[in-house]
Amino acid sequence: xxxxxxxxxxxxxxxxxxxxxxxxxxxxxxxxxxxxxxxxxxxxxxxxxxxxxxxxxxxxxxxxxxxxxxxxxxxxxxxxxxxxxxxxxxxxxxxxxxxxxxxxxxxxxxxxxxxxxxxxxxxxxxxxxxxxxxxxxxxxxxxxxxxxxxxxxxxxxxxxx
Length: 161
Hints:
There is one protein chain. The protein is α+β, with helices and mostly antiparallel strands. The chain has one domain (11-154). It has helices spanning 27-39, 42-45, 110-122; strands at 11-15, 19-22, 51-62, 68-78, 83-89, 102-106, 128-132, 141-147, 150-154. It has a five-stranded antiparallel sheet with strand order 2-1-3-4-5, covered by helices on one side. It is globular. The N and C termini lie far apart (40 Å).
């Protein structure tokens, strides 16, 4: 069956002034690009609505109903209001034990969130990042899990279940 032109692509997109696309195995570079956008002068020098986002598309599957189901996480940073928002589509649970080389951070603390993303990208001992977005109207929690040389979006585990 032919694929439609609207199918989701696996990979990572970083958007600021321009859009950058990365293959899944270059996820560390993509996270650093996003951090450079937020920490750098690009967002501060623009007028009007200043924001940047990073989108992880880590899986896709074609169903019999001719629909594309994908796994994705988009983290948006709004410079005007100094806040993060997230949208996520995920069906895969995280199979990591709670506390197993996982960084946990609340996205209301911007510096902590950016440092946690940097640690995940730079420290090869870190295997997961749990993010909590209390100000986001869409997604409240998300987890990025390192599997081999790729980063996978996963549903965070629920303690006690």
